[in-house]
Design brief:
By secondary structure, the chain is an all-alpha fold. The chain folds into four domains: about 30 residues; about 200 residues, Hypothetical protein af1432 (Orthogonal Bundle), CATH 1.10.3210.10; about 120 residues, putative deoxyguanosinetriphosphate triphosphohydrolase fold (Orthogonal Bundle); about 80 residues, no CATH class. It has 24 helices and no strands. The chain starts with a helix and ends in an 8-residue tail after the last helix.
Length: about 500
Amino acid sequence: MEIEKLKDLKIEKYLVMGIGKMLKFVKFIKKIIMMDLNKLYTSERIGSSDTSRIADPRSEFQRDFDRIIFSSAFRRLQNKTQVFPLPGSVFVHNRLTHSLEVSSVARSLGSLIGKRIYNTQKDLTPESQSFYKNNLKNVLAAACLCHDIGNPAFGHSGEDAIASFFLKNLSVLEKYFDKAQFSDFISFEGNANAIRVLTNHQPGKSIGGLKLTYTTLASIAKYPCESLGRSKSIIHRKKFGFFQSEKEIFEKMASKTGMIKDGNNPNLGYLRHPFVWLVEFADDVCYHIVDLEDAQRLGIIDTKHCIKLLLELIKCLNIEDVQKVKDNLNLIKDKNEKISYLRAKAINTLIRVGEDIFMDEGNFKMILAGEFETSIFDIIAKDCDALQNIIKFSLKYIYNNRAVVEIENAGYNVMYELLNHFIFPLLKNKSERTKSEEKAIQLIPKQFRYLKKGRYNKVMGVLDYISGMTDIYAMELYKKIKGIEIGMK
């Protein structure tokens, strides 16, 4: 039956039965408005309307992947802490290796789900059939490469330092900005910063930043709303996904990729693009399982306990032949190799379970309607005690490990003091600055000095500079401006 006929039949009944039933009807009508699988992707790029190019064996989405790989913003992730401070001779993950592994998981996930969409969805155009069969995996791989690209040095403590700086100086700084602009600062968010890093036009550089496809950008928009539209109780509004400076870009991206506006948000916001759930899941899988592997290498968890946790997870998810896994494990003598083997098995098992959850008919419809309300990883954890045990262990012994807490404290102070050094001089008129404040501004590289674009953009330039720093660079600059380390190297 056609939707319009269905509405005609239902509307009179609900009007007669009262307002309570009418509200249910409104919700019912809302749910049948779904994102169109044929309109979720586009090869159009930000900052470029020219689609003609020399013959290239790569798809547009493979080109996105390559552009990210070769970008300086991606390279800087190698010196940004993932969880543990870089401990010298023991190799643990940093933001770059984490992003590469998340990308690998997402490619596998995208390949499986793309083929299932191709085989099960009957209303796909020939172009869409080709996209889901051949290119969904490339979109997810590219998106996962850059999902952390906006994270500042020292991870979440770096984000906290930026937000706290503006909150603590609210009475002095608030007057310079409108409500929406200042909201961006006091709730600074790495997800929103990722969109800026990938699209921002810096002086002397190309329009459109990396000029990625709108599809790849939409796939990392985990919280597709502006900062004033945040709501901690709603999964897609817990944080925010774009600054005021990227508002128009985000609106265009949403339009090009078939996203639905969030009618319940009084500010600008959208419902999640379906691909976001897969990017989020790949990230969740990697940091929960791989962080456990790092903890074992650092001696935070002993090998036997780590093996037990991973074997219980594999058994709980009921995909692999557990006895065969144990037999293969007994053939491996090196303790680190044992954990690597189980890590691989655990990730592969989670991918297969995640695939089934995403493609479940009811879940899939809710995802396309923007009504899905729980992360795929959390759905798995709810029914799997072994995964809950890993999460609890990680929270208690990994994320609250003394070395982790120390680097978070140090990072917070470093980032806060760098902002303190640059923001106040920059907001003053030139005639009001002292000589030392003029010298402070000279330390800001020219490509980050947006001196003729208004105070909001001036501050965004400083945030571009500071949030883009590696842990090592931020620490070195902090030591120099504080006089802890003096002289040329």
